[in-house]
Design goal:
- A seven-stranded parallel sheet has the order 3-2-1-4-5-6-11, sandwiched between helices.
- It is globular, with a radius of gyration of 19 Å.
- The longest helix is centred in the N-terminal third of the chain and has 21 residues.
- By secondary structure, the protein is an alpha/beta fold.
- It is built from ten helices and 14 strands.
């Protein structure tokens, strides 16, 4: 079957694209390249330049490539920006998703995989976040992802689509330098950016009720994230009835504090990661760690890579984009 990957030139979409090709799947990409990088697309991959708000571009892509399944990654994803520009986030993440689903339904596409987020949970007061943990998003980004899950499930019921929504926790690392994350919006690249500019990394709050006082998160290698999508695509292909409206976490089930992550970054890069302590950021929960039991039960999937491999691969990618960073 042929999969259409919206946002397939992005950081996560690009990794999934490569793994699907390696798995022998036929793929096409739709991307507006506003943040996606054309160099992430292997030679010979069919690419349609267009927005997910452009119904015509979606219809053409589905018809031209005989699309039978869609993996939807194209979305806005910065929490702070979503607070400043909620209309932009609802338009791109909800109206855009609706447009993709409408094109899928009318084009006879029966399999749909949605890229969601752990931001749907908000500030859960639990040791491990399961798929049954109440969803109480704290920002427009998380709200749009939860609304997206509802919309995907409703479309599945109404139009006979088999659907899977995957909730990512903290994605990091790279399978190769050219696929690395070019932004500096998450902890690891933010620390790299400050270190290579000669500045100390910052810890936002060191008085949380955790072992070392800093926030604890569940980090997952992007290659593991991609392999979870391949497992979901395989289920949608071989057992679509068994994939109806699945919602699953992608994580390792292991927490890493900010101080622990800085220690790993220091070992990998050779830089001094002694940090400045800044005030807490509003809305940062003390601990968010995934339970990955359900995805293992459904797909037999488990994460393979550890934190050191995430940081090392991310550092290789950073250095490839910033010559002179390596000591």
């Amino acid at each position: 079957m042929t999969w259409l990957i919206t946002g397939g030139a992005g950081y996560i979409g690009g990794h999934v694209l490569r793994q699907l090709i390696d798995a022998g799947e036929r793929v096409a990409v739709l991307d507006d390249f506003s943040t996606g990088d054309r160099t992430r697309l292997p030679a010979g991959v069919a690419a349609v330049e267009g927005s997910i708000l452009d119904r015509g571009a979606l219809d053409r892509a589905i018809r031209a490539h005989g699309v039978e399944g869609i993996l939807h990654f194209a979305a806005k994803k910065q929490v702070g920006e979503s607070v400043e520009k909620p209309f932009v986030y609802y338009r791109e993440n909800v109206t855009g998703l609706q447009t993709v689903l409408e094109a899928a339904a009318e084009g006879g596409v029966e399999r749909f995989l949605f890229s969601s987020s752990a931001a749907v949970y908000g500030m859960p007061d639990v040791d491990l976040v399961t798929e049954r943990t109440p969803c109480e998003p704290m920002n427009p980004y998380g709200e749009t992802k939860l609304a997206g899950e509802w919309l995907v499930a409703a479309a599945g019921r109404a139009y006979g689509m088999s659907t899977v929504s995957l909730r990512y926790f903290n994605v990091a690392g790279a399978a190769s330098p050219e696929l690395s994350d070019a932004g500096a919006f998450n902890l690891i690249p933010m620390v790299f950016e400050r270190l290579t500019a000669g500045r100390a990394p910052r810890i936002f709050g060191a008085d949380y009720p955790t072992a070392d006082g800093t926030c604890v998160r569940d980090y997952i290698h992007v290659s593991d994230t991609a392999s979870a999508h391949v497992a979901a695509a395989r289920r949608l292909s071989t057992d679509p009835a068994g994939a109806t409206s699945l919602v699953l976490n992608i994580g390792r089930g292991e927490g890493v504090s900010v101080r622990e992550m800085l220690d790993v970054i220091g070992r990998v890069t050779g830089y001094d990661t002694t940090a400045e302590i800044a005030p807490r950021r509003p809305g940062d929960p003390a601990r968010v760690v995934a339970s990955a039991d359900l995805i293992h039960k459904e797909f037999g999937w488990s994460a393979r890579y550890g934190v050191e491999e995430m940081v090392s691969s991310a550092w290789d990618g950073w250095c490839s984009r910033h010559p002179g960073a390596r000591r």
